[in-house]
Design a protein that fits this description.
The protein is an all-alpha fold. The chain has 12 helices and no strands. The protein is elongated and about 55 Å long. 24% of the residues are buried.
Amino acid sequence: MRCIDQVGPQKTGLSDVAHALGVTRQTVYRLYSGTEELLAAVARAAADDYLDRLADHLEDFSDPGDALVEGIAYTLERLPDERFLGLLLTTGRSHAFLKGVTTPEAKAFGRAMLGRMNVDWSAWGYEATDLDALAEYGLRVLQSLVLDPPARCSRARLRALLQRWVAPAVRHPEEAAG
C-alpha cells in the first residue's frame, strides 16, 4: 500500500515492494506469483473497511431487493474511486478482477456484504445456501456491469434497471426458482 501511495498503482511492481521492504524479489515471489496477485491481496486487505462503509450506506435498506440493488449500484459507482479495493480496475487489469469475481475469496466478500446488510434474510425465506448463491448472483451482475457499463447511465437509470430485473428475483426467490 505504501508503494502504491508513493508511485501509483500503474508503476508498482513486485520489485518495488521488495525494495521498499528491503528484501529480494525472490522473497516477494514466494508469496505472490505476480503483480496482479499482489494487487489482489491489497484489494482484499481493503475489503473490510469498504464493507463497513457499505453497511453504513445500506443501513436504511431492509427490503432484500432494494438492499442488493443499492449495494450493487453503490459498489459499481465507488469502485473506480476506491484507492485499494478498485486497484484491479484502475490499473488496467480489470480482466483479473472479472476472471476472479467468483473465486472463493470473492464469494466470501459477497457473502460478507449480504451479512452486513440490515435485511432479515430468514424472514424473507433465505437459508445459508441461498445466501451463498445470492452472493454469487450479485457478483455476477456486478461483473457484467463492470465489463460493459451501461452507456451514459445516470445513477437513477442504473438503479431503475436493477430494480426492474434484479430486485424482483431477490424479493421472491421461490418464484425465480419456479
